[in-house]
Specification:
With 347 residues, this protein is of the alpha+beta class. It contains 15 helices and six strands. Strands 1, 2, 3, 4, 5 and 6 form a six-stranded mixed β-sheet that branches. It is elongated and about 100 Å long.
Length: 347
Amino acid sequence: MPRPDHEAMVREHIRGLLAGLAARRLPARADAEHARAMGRRRAQQGVAVEEVLSAYHLGYRDVWNTLLSRAHTEDPGQAARLLGLVNLVWAWLRVITIAVADGHAETTRAREENRIGLGHELLDALYAGRVTAESTELLAHALAFDPHAEFQAICCPAGPWPPADLDVLRRRLRAGPGTSSAITRGPVLVIVFQRTSAERILDLLSRHTSPMAGVGLVRPGLAGAAAAVVDAERSLAVAQRNGGGVVRFGSEWLAATLLPHMDRLRQLTDTTAAVEQPHLCDAVRAFADNGFSVTASARALHVHPNTVKYRLDRWKQHTGWDPRTLDGLQRSLLGIAFSSSVPEAGS
């Protein structure tokens, strides 16, 4: 904030305080309005209300100590009389800090409502594909995003986030590094962010509720932001189908991409005959995750290699798909991913 502006407002307030003490009166309406204006101004400048109120407490302490020191120096009896003003000083501090906090909250609410409105507009533009429009770039700038930098997105269910809790989340997001916008869109909370990590945001989400979320890829530019939101939404759909947890598009991109087409693909990926035997599903997943090596898969599952071979053969008998072939493995993995009753590997 500009130092001359700060000093002028502080000087005016201290004059009002000293005049009030001299006249033995409480703050007048003009004094409270001046404090309210100070609160609004500091909110506009991005100063936290705790810091503003702390500055008032420090200022009052210094004024009182100065008065008391001069009184002791000039006349010890005057110092004793000055102590009779203690309650009046505290009354001034109480009235003025309430006015400051009110002004700060008024501006903070207005700014937050404006940010939320801009966030909705930006998200609508991304969904509508207006990623090259000048208006979309201006919206990104207004929200402090760099439209040419990398974006990422996280989606989670909006149900656990009532407005008050969502306000807390937004404040916590702003308090850390980077830039973010958290907007509810129907049943989904969409968080678009830059220059911060997905892990930090997932940690903030987990403080409120057990996280169920989809995490999109890091992608460049506004076109990348639009794609990252789609990544996150589709990954969230996989998480919901799995019954919870965090699904990252980078590792579950195939299931996340094909899940919207599940009805068309069901005949190709039906694992009904095998889902009641989750150890077979574990063997298929371990085989895919360990370089198609039976030995490595056995180590991961803590079983003998012959056990893995047997389970892969049993899978083929149940489904008709040979997981040792590319087509059979793809169908097997998609069938497992699309079946909500199949537990996670290692369970």
